[in-house]
Amino acid sequence: VSVNIGGKVINGETVQFYYGILVSAFSAVSMFFAVKLADKLGGMKNMVVLAQVMNAAFRVVAFFIGFDTLPKMIAVIAIISISSIPTNMVGIAQRALLCDSIDYTEWKTGKRTEGISNSMQNLTNKFVDALKLIFSGLVLSGLGYDANLGLEGQTQAFYKAQWPLFMLLPALGSVLYLIPFLCIRYSKAQRA
Fold this sequence. Notes:
- It holds the Pfam family MFS_2.
- With about 190 residues, this protein is mainly alpha-helical.
- The chain is about 75% helix and about 5% strand.
- It has a two-stranded antiparallel ribbon.
- α3 (about 45-65) packs antiparallel against α6 (about 155-180).
- The model has no long low-confidence stretch (mean pLDDT about 85).
């Protein structure tokens, strides 16, 4: 879909710029309310769960709305922007949960473990990033993507897969992200 608004062409490539501005604005404002929202939800873990559920649900809804008209494109941008509010608070929640795990280890063993905890988190992040790159390469290869052909010379399979990949893979990622968080249980003594 391409739309000419005031002499500017808005299409799949340029809409990402406007989408980025909108999401960034929501993200910046949401950071000020992360702790208050977490308190209302019963903790940072619950905020992470809410964020991932919202991201998955809203992306599935946006996928079915589609993007073939300007109103649909605007609706999708609005839906994803709204779902980004709790999703962008996840960074704050992750840091708080990491600190909680360090405190838990001290409570359990009497020793602080910041160094090893941060090292393991960095190693895990690098491992996850490597897996993402491998998976992305496999998906692009499977779709017949050739970087030398540019955007105009790709296979039809590549073009048809863009929308499902953009909407549904992050939704799947959110569902998978939930698995470890749904296994976390705190006793009353641990909460104190």
